[in-house]
Amino acid sequence: MTAECGRCAALCCMALAFDKGARFGHDKPAGRPCPNLGRHLCTIHDALEDKGFSGCAAYDCLGAGQRVTQELFGGASWQDEPELMRPMIDAFAHMRLLHSLWELLETALTLPLTPAERQAAEAHIAAIRAPLTRDTVAARATGALQTEVHLFLRGLERHVTGRAPVTLPPPPAPRRPA
């Protein structure tokens, strides 16, 4: 879950959008390479904050970029094969979601979990880390795994708040017409 920019095809610098403001020195729409991008590396990386790009300096893809580039696209780049731009953007969005869930699960492992909760968190992490393909990344990010992780995390509320999770009463049975 550590970004390795040298193993990525500069996906954050191309796929993500940002608006000029306190954290970004200019507007950049999603799917358009940043003007500061030189091949796969930022040409102003050592001076991002000085040049008004503290948002770039603070950004961390949690390793999603290199995983998409290496695992799903075999090291290929949208810069060499422009037809890969859209598939790489889509895969990056899904991988970022998976890696965000992974980060939340790693944080959950720092809580005083029961053995069953710890086992569930580790199983979810293993599912996120399992090899993916271009065809499976979207399903894993938006399907049952995402739902299961969200439900699992919500079930940990008592570890954070000190209260038992709120359970809603079942809905009333439908009335039969008289």
Q: Can you characterise this structure?
A:
The protein has 178 residues and is mainly α. Helices cover 45% and strands 2% of the residues. The protein has 8 helices and 2 strands. A two-stranded antiparallel ribbon has the order 1-2. A hairpin with a 2-residue loop joins strand 1 and strand 2.
Mean of pLDDT: 91
Strand ordering within the main sheet: 1-2
What is the alpha-carbon Rg in Å? 20 Å
Q: Report the principal-axis shape.
A: elongated
Structural class: mainly alpha
The unreliable regions are: none
**Binned strand content:** under 5%
User: What is the H-and-E element order?
Assistant: HEEHHHHHHH
Largest sheet: 2 strands, antiparallel
* Head-to-tail CA distance between termini: 61 Å
Helical segment count: 8
Number of strands: 2
Portion in helices = 40-55%
Helices and strands, with pairings:
Blueprint: H1 11-15, E1 37-38, E2 41-42, H2 54-58, H3 64-72, H4 85-108, H5 115-129, H6 137-142, H7 144-154, H8 157-161
Antiparallel strand pairs: 1-2
Structure summarized in a few sentences:
The protein is mainly alpha-helical and 178 residues long. The protein is built from 8 helices and 2 strands.
